[in-house]
Amino acid sequence: MANSEIYSAHYISGTHWDREWYRTYQEFRLLFVDLVDGLLDLMEKNPAFKSFHFDGQTCVLQDYLEVRPENRDRLAALIRSGRILIGPWYTMPDLFCPGAEALVRNLLTGQRIASAWSTSAMPVAYTCDMFGHPSQMPQIYQGFGISSCVLGRGTNEYDTPAFFHWQSPDDSKVLCFKLQDKMGYGAFNKARQEFERGDGSEESHERARKSLQDYIEHEISRSNGRVLCLIDALDHMPPASDAAKYIAVAETACAQVRVSHSTLPAFFADAAAHLDGDIPVKRGELRDPAKTRNGYLWLIPNCVSSRIRLKQANDACQALLELQAEPLLAIAQSLGISVVPPRLPQIAWETLLLNHAHDSICGCSIDEVHRDMMYRFDQVEQLGRQIRNRALGMISSRCRELGTAPHEFTLTVCNCVPRPWTGSSVIDIDFPLDWPNKLCDAFHSQVLNAFILEDADGRRVPYQILAVEPRHAERTQYAVMGWNATGTPCSRYTVAVDLDIPATGFRSLVVKPVASLQRSMGSLRNGPCSAENEHLAMSIAANGTIELRDKASGQIYSDLMLFEDRSEIGDGWFHGQSASDEIALSAGNSAQISVVHDGPLAVTFRIQTTMDLPERYDFHLERRSESRRGLTIVTTVTLRRGARALECHSEIRNNIEDHRLRLLFPSDAVAAQSWLAHHPYDLVERPIRLRRETADWSEADLAEKPFLHLQAVGDGSRGLALIVPGGMHEGGVVDDARRTLQMTLFRSYRRTVGSTAGRDGLELCPLHVAFAIMPYAGELPVAAAFDQLFAMQSPLVLRQSGKCRSGYPELTGDQAPDQGFMELLDGQLIFSACKNADDGRGVIVRLWNPHAQPAQERLRLWQDIASANGCDLAERDGEALAAEGREVVVSAEAKQIRTIRIQFKD
């Protein structure tokens, strides 16, 4: 080394522990127990082995103690002494598939568990294996007092030195250490392996010394400071018992280096004091493709479209907990109602977070792993549903019963999100089988229940019958003990009603028998294959595509909902297509169009199309097979009265192997140069034009990129937003003349890590996807878009009184049957959470500002406020906020996340 400067090197011992991946959780746990057993012996017998970290995770502690409870005190002593570092995560997640709130809860859970071990979580964002990094992560980290971060993927050595500052859109900043391109967090392991497989000869010792020297010199060559990080933490590797020897050899091989067995917090403290000059700043998301081909540095961009049933189950569980169970639970508890033990919501979240590990939620593991995940999702759904139903049942049971005559009953319709619900709603009404008034049209027709709906003031509420299930049976929605737990057989009517429902509240209707059938007159349909409401006009072409007219701007959008299919020869991580590919489009298909619902409140069309596709990919001939089969796609398109978006649901009866299916939406926003993608606490603006310089990189820039639930493209005069409640997270805009918005529906692939037996990745089953299309002019109407998203993610929750109350408690109180509890009055900030505070002190409400300028929101709550305090994401109190009565004004800087602690008056 020509440079004579002295470098301080921190040797970091750890392991990268995927709980499940190419082996199942139980198989990996068996190995993890062996690792920790050995680690405890090593650290107790050898004080020179100073420290070890558990991959930034805390979930592995319980994994170990379930098997070795007798070793708890030994483990606790090493954790309390600071020799074993835990956290800050509960499990190391992917950062693009889980939602924003899930990332916060992951860190919050890691912090809670560390405190239970009488220590603090490691104050370093250890993100060594994430597949890119969203824009707001620095703000999230700073919200937990984390000011440093280890990362690799999404950056390249050619333009990123070892140290840089990473800044989020609100200007929060963290100091980052970039892992090297070649081996990332496992770079030290190559030299370690040379030592371990040496035969003791001088030649083998020299090979090991040279390997270690090459590694350290490379670290010096890319460093912009005088502090080096030598990470020895490769996947599923036990600690190096000869760490002292490696350190001694390193200092001999590199005379300018002084090595200590250290920790990541100590490394960053040393580095911050010895950085060279101005440290570069990177802003926004880190998603650069890999330039050079290396074993470690891959962005791995397509895992967001792998195994979409996992993504759908995850998104549904997150929405259930965040938008329904937690807000209702917080309201109930503040009213003095005990719903469930406090530990139960934590169990639901911890079970869900286990599925967020980067090799789990990404869909890149073996089939057995992903089957285990579906079991966990089921457990979360069951817990979340019962928490929600119990809270709603207990809150509403204090209201008065509206049904006063025989056979009348109260229907309580709850909107869980903090924005009012206005317009056409779809609800289910369960009638006892002995409903007294049953009639039919003319002499021979279907026998229907005759009933009316009235609100609490006696006003008639019109309805439109959408479907009837003559006999319906299920276990009670509200879990109860005893023989009545199976519920009461009923007839279920699905109806559309025009309702105004308070924000985070409910409206009650009384269902009454009447002497004659009640018909809904008129229709939104204005032609055989067309319909319109106050805002939109739509029609269906012969090939099944949609034409949509925005009545406010007059702009027309045509050829919407075109299906595109091509070969898929990739795996859970990457999409790949054959060089001899055939891209099939539904443009020339002949669609069968039906009318499913036809009335004044809702019109639904059914569009069935069949694509003639190659059955599979022939891996011997390296092209799609000559034999073909029909892929049937059934899409329902619903236009509701008052709606500003067209709601769609597609069922793909997948019987084709080795293919990728996408939806295309030409926006014709011809002047658009960028598009918006929803990510955790942000709407990221991305260029439409691809980076041409990546054509010969290891990975090329792709038009398809991750998003959470919303993507949009517009040029001022016209724009198109695609709103997706769950499952589909890969989209983008094609750099074509029509500025085509695209969304991957699924990828069917057979290649699975470490196994040729797995077939679940082929997705050979009926697949269901839901989305909404919203045209706009000018800037994206963010509040309206998120109102539509939340309405789809959090459908109305219903409870009844009377014979079919499905376990819910009787309405025995005297309170008003219509109540609202929490509302965002201005629509400037976006709702993220309403939950009981972790420490039991009041309620936590979290909002975020999607705008590039400051904004404020008036938040109205359900009780008089005793105090309101801003706090960080770790729920540590900050500045006091002025509150008056039940309202508090929340101000947010551009792109800022605001967390508020509310305590109510007695």
From TrEMBL:
<dbReference type="GO" id="GO:0102546">
    <property type="term" value="F:mannosylglycerate hydrolase activity"/>
</dbReference>
<dbReference type="GO" id="GO:0030246">
    <property type="term" value="F:carbohydrate binding"/>
</dbReference>
<dbReference type="Pfam" id="PF17677">
    <property type="entry name" value="Glyco_hydro38C2"/>
</dbReference>
<dbReference type="InterPro" id="IPR028995">
    <property type="entry name" value="Glyco_hydro_57/38_cen_sf"/>
</dbReference>
<dbReference type="InterPro" id="IPR041147">
    <property type="entry name" value="GH38_C"/>
</dbReference>
<dbReference type="InterPro" id="IPR037094">
    <property type="entry name" value="Glyco_hydro_38_cen_sf"/>
</dbReference>
<dbReference type="InterPro" id="IPR011682">
    <property type="entry name" value="Glyco_hydro_38_C"/>
</dbReference>
<dbReference type="Pfam" id="PF09261">
    <property type="entry name" value="Alpha-mann_mid"/>
</dbReference>
<dbReference type="GO" id="GO:0004559">
    <property type="term" value="F:alpha-mannosidase activity"/>
</dbReference>
<dbReference type="Pfam" id="PF07748">
    <property type="entry name" value="Glyco_hydro_38C"/>
</dbReference>
<dbReference type="InterPro" id="IPR011013">
    <property type="entry name" value="Gal_mutarotase_sf_dom"/>
</dbReference>
<dbReference type="InterPro" id="IPR015341">
    <property type="entry name" value="Glyco_hydro_38_cen"/>
</dbReference>
<keyword id="KW-0479">Metal-binding</keyword>
<keyword id="KW-0378">Hydrolase</keyword>
<feature type="domain" description="Glycoside hydrolase family 38 central">
    <location>
        <begin position="305"/>
        <end position="377"/>
    </location>
</feature>
<dbReference type="InterPro" id="IPR027291">
    <property type="entry name" value="Glyco_hydro_38_N_sf"/>
</dbReference>
<keyword id="KW-0326">Glycosidase</keyword>
<dbReference type="InterPro" id="IPR011330">
    <property type="entry name" value="Glyco_hydro/deAcase_b/a-brl"/>
</dbReference>
<protein>
    <submittedName>
        <fullName>Alpha-mannosidase/mannosylglycerate hydrolase</fullName>
        <ecNumber>3.2.1.170</ecNumber>
        <ecNumber>3.2.1.24</ecNumber>
    </submittedName>
</protein>
<comment type="similarity">
    <text>Belongs to the glycosyl hydrolase 38 family.</text>
</comment>
<dbReference type="GO" id="GO:0046872">
    <property type="term" value="F:metal ion binding"/>
</dbReference>
<dbReference type="InterPro" id="IPR000602">
    <property type="entry name" value="Glyco_hydro_38_N"/>
</dbReference>
<dbReference type="GO" id="GO:0009313">
    <property type="term" value="P:oligosaccharide catabolic process"/>
</dbReference>
<dbReference type="GO" id="GO:0006013">
    <property type="term" value="P:mannose metabolic process"/>
</dbReference>
<dbReference type="Pfam" id="PF01074">
    <property type="entry name" value="Glyco_hydro_38N"/>
</dbReference>
